[in-house]
Design brief:
Elements (H helix, E strand, L loop, with lengths): L1 H7 L2 H14 L5 H16 L8 H11 L6 H14 L36 H20 L1 H17 L4 H13 L12 H17 L1 H16 L2 H5 L9
Helix pairs in contact: 2-3, 2-5, 4-5, 5-7, 6-7, 6-10, 7-8, 7-9, 9-10
Length: 237
């Protein structure tokens, strides 16, 4: 508990708290957002990471304030706030706003993948696994599949990757295909998969998410890409 309190007192956490308040204001009034921020601090103090249970928290906040239909929008805004970390960089207006990502806005993301093409076993396996998971999510709910793509686009755009590394995955999310010109360092793709794991568990529940992951992994393991690089490796620490 002392360690959690120490984290909450750090300047970096306070910046993220302010950014979260601004994100909440995209859906709530200033007064409602102030109350929700206090609830968020309690939520974070009991969580293993700032991103843990974020979508579920956004849903509960929207239900509490009669904004049920906007919980996905709020979760996206809060996710961007945590990854950006600086509330003031989001807007210089009197009423700061962190704009949610909507379908049709995907062209704002960098997709520069010009250069000699390469192919690494890790990325080939990752591509197959990510597409398999997106397909399974969309099979259950097409709208949820679209929301998942938007969430991942936002995550990728804020990861500390090179423009080419980002563009390779962004093109894959936008079109279902891509070309690779840059490899990834150990753990980079695992980090993105961890974000997806949290999102799927929040949106689908632990049991359903685990079933979809297991089925997707089994399907990819039967492919050439999966035999060359095990998809289970993306879930290792």
């Amino acid at each position: 508990m002392q360690n959690q309190l120490a984290v909450i007192r750090t300047p970096d956490f306070q910046r993220k708290k302010q950014a979260i308040h601004f994100a909440l204001c995209t859906v709530l009034t200033q007064e409602e957002a102030a109350g929700a921020v206090r609830s968020w601090e309690q939520h974070v103090s009991a969580s293993t990471s700032l991103f843990s249970g974020l979508t579920l928290f956004a849903r509960k906040v929207c239900e509490a304030y009669g904004k049920d239909s906007r919980h996905v929008e709020l979760a996206q805004a809060m996710g961007r706030a945590l990854m950006n970390g600086d509330a003031m960089s989001a807007s210089n207006d009197a009423e700061p706003v962190l704009a949610p990502v909507h379908a049709g806005q995907t062209n704002e993301f960098s997709t520069d993948v010009s250069g000699p093409e390469i192919s690494t076993p890790e990325f080939a396996s990752f591509k197959s696994l990510l597409l398999a998971l997106l397909h399974k999510i969309s099979e259950r709910d097409a709208k949820l599949g679209s929301s998942c793509r938007e969430f991942l686009l936002t995550v990728v755009d804020n990861l500390p990757w090179s423009p080419a590394q980002q563009g390779q995955v962004i093109n894959l999310l936008n079109s279902g295909t891509t070309r690779q010109i840059r490899p990834y360092r150990a753990g980079q793709l695992n980090a993105l998969m961890r974000h997806l794991v949290v999102w799927m568990k929040d949106m689908l529940g632990d049991e359903t998410a685990e079933i979809l992951f297991r089925h997707a992994i089994m399907a990819v393991e039967k492919s050439d890409a999966g035999r060359a690089y095990s998809p289970g490796e993306f879930f290792s620490k």
